[in-house]
Every structure is written in structure tokens, then in C-alpha cells.
Amino acid sequence: MTDEFAVEMQDVVKRFTTPEGGILAAVNHVTMQIRDGEFFSLLGPSGCGKTTSLRMIAGFELPTEGKILIHGKDVSQIAPFQRPVNTVFQQYALFPHMTVEQNIGFGLEMKGVSKVERSARVSEALEMVRLPGMEMRKPKQLSGGQQQRIALARALVNKPEVLLLDEPLGALDLKLRKEMQLELKSLQREVGITFIYVTHDQEEALTMSDRIAVMSKGVALQVDKPEAIYERPATKFVADFIGETNFLDGVVRGQTGSTVEVDLPGTGTVYIESSRTFANGQQATVAVRPEKMTLNREISGGNNLTGRVEEVIYIGTDTHYGVRFAGSHKARVREQNVTQGQKALASIGDEAVVSFTRTSPRLLTE
Amino acid sequence: MINWLRRNKSAQGTLLISPTLVFMIGLLIIPLILTLIISFGKRSADGNVIYSFGLHNYIRLLGVSYNCSAGQTVCYDPIYTQILWRSLTLAFNSTVVVILLAYPLAYFIARSHPSRRNTYLFLVLVPLWTNFVIRVYAWMMLLRTQGLINSALAWVADLFGRPFTPLEMLYTPGAVLIGMVYEFLPFMILPIYTSLEKIDGSLYEAAADLGANAVRTFLRVTLPLSAPGMVAGTVLVFIPVMGAFVVSDLLGGKQVILVGNLIQRQFLDARDPTFGSAASLILMALTLVVMFFYTRKFGFGEEIAIT
Ligand SMILES: Nc1ncnc2c1ncn2[C@@H]1O[C@H](COP(=O)(O)OP(=O)(O)O)[C@@H](O)[C@H]1O
Ligand SMILES: [Mg+2]
Questions:
Q1: Which of B205, B213, B304 sits opposite A96 (nearest CB)?
Q2: For residue range B140-155, what is the model confidence (pLDDT) as tens digits?
């Protein structure tokens, strides 16, 4: 229990035989460490292996290769009912023939907790999810949001070492989902249990998580804090999946210290600060967030590219400008509408200068 | 006319149920009333019905007899109450055995790969393609004193040089039980399978996740959630066994007479339709009473049973 990692996945591979008879690596050499007490999210598009990873931690699937450790103990071959983890299922999986009380008390009953203590802990758990007095209801008599909370209570009442949640808010409407996000986060802080949270919603992951693992095609591309994932995406996929990014493809022409010179063919030359070392002639992509670009406000010592405005979209708080450059590059610039009645900085068809500092882009090669 | 029908929901309803309604009134309600009337009547010397009103047939069924020995005018003759009791216990035993045999099979099918389930269900239904009487004759061939089972046993005994007396299997209550179980097994397998197949797989995982091993998952999740199938199957097995007579006729002979046989004999051999009618109604009443208490406790199998 002294191990600082709640869960470790060591070079884990899970292969499935597909119905067509092929072999599919749903999880492909994933290694990650989830710290004790943190809110950790597995984020990625549908089919990237999030659920499979979670199910291997729960024990519903056994890894084809590699090891899974919970608090330092290898559980790779241990049955689900013997693991110190509990799951909140996507469709809740409440027992339809049992009352709320029997549902929540099920785990305690299996552990042999006495009836008296059980009912006390069940009411406590119901308080925690803010549904006191619901003991005698059947799952069918609850709304989706209430069922979700009961599923949460049923898992948390066992005080697991790790709580696994597979898109638990996926079936709720937007407003309720936003509410539950905050509630889940504060609940997690309160109980101090490690949460591993699966979602395909980047905003949800950014709002709730201490750290995020971004997955694609069975591979964990980047594991980091939300700010780091957003500010310093490791790959084009991550930059694209989390928020919006402009990609300007170019070729490295030289590097002096940390400053890299990149030629954007036809559009111009830019200088980017990067801690990495690039070879001359190497293909590289300049990734810049739209809000880190400005329109018609040249930055001295920064990068200034001239193009033509193709699109102006007013969305209330911001105005988005779509700009096309001489090379086939395109960029979207986001300007905040700070003053009332602010005039558009440019109209469609105008020539305009797009500027960004040397430190704001990421120079990516994969 | 069509438009009027379109607007009028209750007329639509009447139209939809009317074929069944005509059928039910003509072939169920009216015959039932006739049966009731006949059961109060008397048998004439040539085997016809003399319409009158008396409860003598019911009194006779309950064991009151006027053909007594040694100077008694009224005595207790248990023959008919014994037959009723035998039918009741046989229906109960058959249902229990059928559940015990059907459940594991239904479970196996429900748990097998989806691509194979239809094949298994098909195999369950295959015996129903052959006429039932022929299949019961097949059981006679197996169970006879000179039948297949006894021949096989004799051969084995011979192999070990032991003497062998053939087992008396045909014309025993056991043979009738086997026949009933055999006949009604599919009617239990299908509803149990249906309710097992409906159980969401994530419930098994949830149970395992919460610390239940395979046995406890079965007892606390699988069994209660498949109870509706068992209840529906019980209704489908218990009621027909109560009235069955072909199996007991062929496999039970004179040894195992059920209410069904009694009724059949009153109409065909004894030529007393009044007594036969009374017996039919008693059988119906008995079945209804049992099913009434049963369904009051368990429902008709549509609701999820509460543990
Ligand atoms: N039992 C299985 N058999 C075959 N393929 C599976 C199985 N489970 C998942 N997969 C495949 O593995 C991939 C990853 O699935 P999953 O982990 O559910 O993705 P996610 O949860 O990220 O949407 C998908 O392509 C899916 O079709
Ligand atoms: Mg999933």
C-alpha cells in the first residue's frame, strides 16, 4: 500500500480475434502509471481502446501481454471479484430485481458485512450522492440521472482502492452532464479515491482531470496534466483532438540554439522556439492555436504572414477569421470582441497579416 | 364506413377481437355450459343423458359410495379421490423434473455463442415434428420387458456371467413420469431460455465487480432474473399434464389411471357422459385453484420476480 502508484500498466497488449477472423490489437503496448488519489482520464475517440484498458484493470479482460499492478501487486491473472477496484458501468448495470438499498448493499453483503452496518453505510452512501431516502425504490422508478448516482453509490460504498468509470455521464443530457462533472470532481476530492475515468469528450477530460492519457488506435500518445496537453501537445493527433489547432506544413531550414527556421513553401518563413533538435530538410508542422494568432496587429520579433481573408464568423464572444496564404496553407484566427460595437478587423477579400510569437506554436513531426 | 371505423377506437377493438370472440363463445363457453348441464343429469340404461338436476356425480367423485358391503348403505370409496390426487402429484412432480432438466440446458444455450443458439433451439424443437403418439410408442419399445434397455442390461449381465431378471419399467408411475417429462420439456426450455437470454451481460460483470463469485452471481442475479421464464414454463407444463391421458394410457396401462383417463373412459367405455362431465369440471376447478394460488404468488411470468 505504500506504493505511490495506484495502478500501473506495464507494456500491456490486448489482442482480439475479430468476427472476420483477423487479429486486432485494441491496446498496443501501453505503459502508464496512475498516481494514488488522482483523477485520471483516458481520453480518445471511439474505438481507441479506452474501455478495453479499463476492463483489463477491472479484470473483465485479461491482457494478452504485459502486466497490470494495483498498489504494486500484480493482478494480471486475478478474477474481477477478488480485485480491490469497483466499476461504474456506462449503462449503470443496476440489478433490476433489487431495491436501491439491495443494489448498494450488494458489495458489502458479498464481503459479509452485517445487515445493521450495511444499512447504515447504504444510507451514508445515499447521502453522499444526494439521494437520501431512496432505499426502497426499484431502479426502474428512477430517472437516468438518479440511476447514475445509485451506480456511483453502489461502487463507492465498498471504499475501493480505485474507482473505474466508463463514460458514466454519456447517457445524460448536456445540462445534467455539466452538473455531474463538477459534482464527481468534488466527490473525488472528498473521498480521496483514485478515479480512472474514460471519456471521448475532451472538454470533460480537461475540466475534471488531474492528468489525462490521450489514446489513439490502442496507443497512449501523451500522458500529462490538462494544461500541458493543451499547451504542449506531443503529436498532431493530440493537438487536433484537444481543442482547435492550425497546422502549417513546412520544411526545417536551420536551427540556431532553440530557434528553428521553418519554410512554409509559398507562404513565407517562420521562426519557432523549440527544445528539440531538428535536422535540415526535415518535414515539420507548425501547430498554432487560433487564439494565439492575431489579425492585422503585427508582432515585432514574431512571425507575420500575409494572406487573404476568406471567411468572417461572428460568434458573440469572438470573431473567427479564415485566412488563406499564398502557399496552400490556411489558418483560422480567433479575435476576442473586447469592446462594445467593435468593428471587424477585416472583411472577406481583404488582404490581412496573421501574426504569432515565436514561442506560441509547437513544432511537430508526427 | 371506413372513415367511421378510423375514428372510432372502440369499434376497431371490437372488430379485432371478434373472430376470437366468436371462436371462444362457440367452442368454449357454450360447450362448457352444456358440460355443466349434463353433469347434473343422470345416465339412462342405454347410455344417454336424462336431463335433471342432482349433485350425485360430484358426490360420487368425492368418494361417497352406495355400493357398499355388509349392510352399510353409505361408505367411503377412495378410488376417484385417489385418481385426482395422483394427477395432482404427477403434474407437480413432472413440473419439478422438467424444470431441473430444462434449466441447465436453457442456460447452456443462452450462454453459448450467438451464432450457435439458433441451431440448439432448432434441435430442441425437432422432436415436435414427429407425431407424439409415435414417440410414446418409441418409449414403449425402450421400456418393455423385452425392450431395448432390458436387452442391453441382459447383454451386460451376460458379459459378467451374472443372472439377470428383466426390470419392470413399462406400466409403472415412473414410466408415466418419464413420458410426461419427455413430452413437455421443450415448453419449459423455451421460456427459460428467453428470460435468460434477455439478461444484460453487464449485470454479471457488475456482480463480479462487487465481489460475487460464480455461485453467488447465479443465486442472486441469474436465478431471480430467469424466474419469469420458470413461472411461464410451469403454467405451460402443469396444466396440460393435469389433463393428459395418452401418455398414461400407453405407458401406464391400467396401473396408472389419471383424471384424463377417467374422463375418456366415462365417455367411450362406461358410456356415462354425466359422470364424465362432472369429472371434467372437477379437473378444471382443481387446475384453476392451483394456478390461481400459483399466479397470485408469482404472477404469469411477465413481471420480474422479487427476491
Ligand atoms: N470482445 C471484443 N472482441 C473483438 N474486438 C473487440 C472486443 N472488444 C473491443 N474490441 C475492439 O477493440 C477496439 C477498442 O475497443 P474499445 O476499447 O471498446 O474502444 P473505446 O472504449 O475506446 O471506444 C475496437 O475496435 C473494438 O471493436
Ligand atoms: Mg468505450
A1: B304
A2: 999 998 899 999 999 9
